From TrEMBL:
It comes from Nibricoccus aquaticus. Keywords: ATP-binding, Nucleotide-binding. This is Magnesium chelatase. NCBIfam families: YifB family Mg chelatase-like AAA ATPase. The lineage of its organism: Bacteria, Pseudomonadati, Verrucomicrobiota, Opitutia, Opitutales. Belongs to the Mg-chelatase subunits D/I family. ComM subfamily. Residues 214-397 form the AAA+ ATPase domain. Pfam families: ChlI, Mg_chelatase, Mg_chelatase_C. GO terms for molecular function: ATP binding; DNA binding.
Length: 511
């Protein structure tokens, strides 16, 4: 008897339909034959499925059984086909009615006892089921919580093979999984710290506020102990909460990578990724035999913090140049080509030299000019051009460290950032850009107009600092963000001067 069920295969962060065809009772000795371009984990499912069937009290096949995962040219990976294969075998043996199988997409890993375990890409499967007009999806409980965020599709959590069998056979009912509540406050994490804990560094605090308001990339340069990492780790506390659509995009990426944001408190929070400097090109950009998301995609709509920037491999840093411009990355492998979103805010920190004390009045720098040049040359000019704001973090004095006066807290800064973002959203309504940093050239010409006096000022700055044409556009975008923070309708001289100031360090320090 032939049985057909429906499952899915992940391609990047999207899902594609997979037909699970099971044909039992074929001539020959007992054997499970699995075809359809499966990887090792899929091939091993036959052993898990047979044990799960026996331990769940079901009759196992005694004749040759062929299992086909179609289409045959789409590579299948992971243990997500255990549950549909087991249900397909039960249907082919006449133990399970086939009436309701066509209504659902089914996925889940099976333990030897028949219990289900979570799978990657549940959100993508629910979106695919909705797109195909299916009634719903059957998934393990942890995965079902993700899938329930997709509206217009029924999601049922099945904790075991036996429970799935009885539900599809009409012997029992299951409650529909409900969507977890998405928190409206992005700052519920009490471990993130607060801006009030930062002593001194008023210029750095201002630069960070400007960067977050316009989603601009930021480079912090300063000696050890100046608070670079401390303030970078508190950047999420002043970021506005993501929209529902942004939250779903973030969850889709993490789900596809197997890094599920489990628990209601995690929904509605912007991701913060801080990879170690030993990370590989593939780990940062994404890839693998079947291309999957890397750190830049996992930081989508959030922050990618690279501490000790020159310590990262040059090749790993250079692969970020195109994604920083486009907000997406295309990965081509023999198994296929996928395009992954990666619209993130890059925050990088570094010392001014190898010993870290160049220009520090309290410590003597031990580096010679050759060492300093070699250290700085690890970061290319094209990469620096894509970082909108460069700011220096000088060492703190003893009096600043001893001060008991509390600085302005994250909540007050976040309100100003939120107001600036709302102005940008209203201005850019109807376009793909959601912040000033993501404006294209046509939008820059439309919204960043300056008069002849400010144009002369820009020309003088460009010539003196030897800035590139890309830096010209980025200065205008930063100036517009500063104007948004000030509540101004257009760019004025103080806004432009402050934006130019944020571009001066890359030429003074690196050339």
């Amino acid at each position: 008897m032939l049985a057909t069920l429906f499952s899915a295969a992940l391609q990047g962060i999207d899902a594609e339909l997979v037909y699970v065809e099971v044909n039992s009772g074929e001539t020959g000795d007992f054997k499970l034959v699995l075809v359809g371009l499966p990887d090792t984990a899929v091939k091993e499912s036959s052993d898990r499925v047979l044990s799960a069937l026996g331990n769940s009290g079901f009759r196992k096949p005694h004749a040759r059984t062929t299992i086909n995962l179609a289409p045959g040219d789409l590579r299948k990976e992971g243990p997500i086909y255990d549950l549909p294969i087991a249900l397909g075998i039960l249907t082919a043996l006449g133990q399970l009615k086939a009436d309701r199988l066509a209504d659902f997409l089914i996925a889940g890993e099976l333990g030897l006892s028949g219990a289900t375990r979570p799978v990657r890409g549940a959100l993508a499967m629910a979106r695919l089921a909705k797109q195909l007009g299916k009634k719903g999806v059957l998934l393990p409980p942890a995965s079902a919580k993700e899938a329930a965020l997709v509206e217009g599709v029924e999601v049922y959590a099945v904790s075991s093979l036996d429970q799935a069998f009885r539900f599809l056979n009409g012997e029992r009912t299951l409650p529909r999984e409900t969507a977890a509540r998405i928190t409206s406050d992005n700052q519920a994490d009490e471990h993130a710290g607060d801006f009030s804990e930062i002593k001194g560094q008023h210029a750095l605090r201002r630069a960070v506020e400007v960067a977050v308001s316009g989603f601009h990339n930021l480079l912090i340069i300063g000696p050890p102990g100046s608070g670079k990492s401390m303030i970078a780790k508190r950047i999420p506390t002043i970021m506005p909460a993501p929209t529902l659509d942004e939250s779903l995009e973030v969850l889709s990426i993490h789900s596809a990578a197997g890094q599920t944001l489990s628990g209601p408190a995690q929904f509605g929070k912007r991701p913060v990724r801080s990879p170690h400097h030993t990370i590989s090109d593939v780990g940062l950009l994404g890839g693998g035999t079947i291309p999957g998301p890397g750190e830049i995609s996992l930081a989508h709509h959030g922050v990618l913090f690279l501490d000790e920037l020159p310590e990262f491999k040059r090749s790993a840093l250079e692969v970020m140049r195109q994604p920083l411009e486009d907000g997406s990355v295309t990965i081509s492998r023999s198994a296929g080509k996928v395009t992954l979103p990666c619209c993130f805010m890059l925050v990088a920190a570094m010392n001014p030299c190898e010993c870290g004390y160049l220009g520090d009045p309290k410590h003597e720098c031990r580096c010679n000019p050759t060492q300093i040049q070699r250290y700085r040359s690890r970061i290319s000019g094209p990469l620096l051009d894509r970082i909108d704001i460069h700011i220096e973090a000088p060492g703190l004095s003893i009096s600043e460290l001893r001060s008991e006066q509390m600085s302005e807290g994250s909540a007050a800064v976040r309100e100003r950032v939120r107001a600036a973002r709302e102005r940008q959203l209203a201005r850019l309504k109807g376009s793909r850009a959601t912040a000033n940093a993501r404006m294209n050239h046509a939008q820059i010409r439309k919204h960043c107009g300056i008069d002849s006096t400010l144009g002369d000022l820009m020309q003088q700055a460009m010539e003196q600092l030897s800035l590139s044409a890309r830096a010209y556009d980025r200065i205008l975008k930063v100036a517009l963000t500063i104007a948004d923070l000030a509540g101004a309708e257009r760019i004025e001289a103080p806004h432009l001067l402050e934006a130019i100031q944020y571009r001066s360090l890359d030429r003074n320090l690196f050339y």
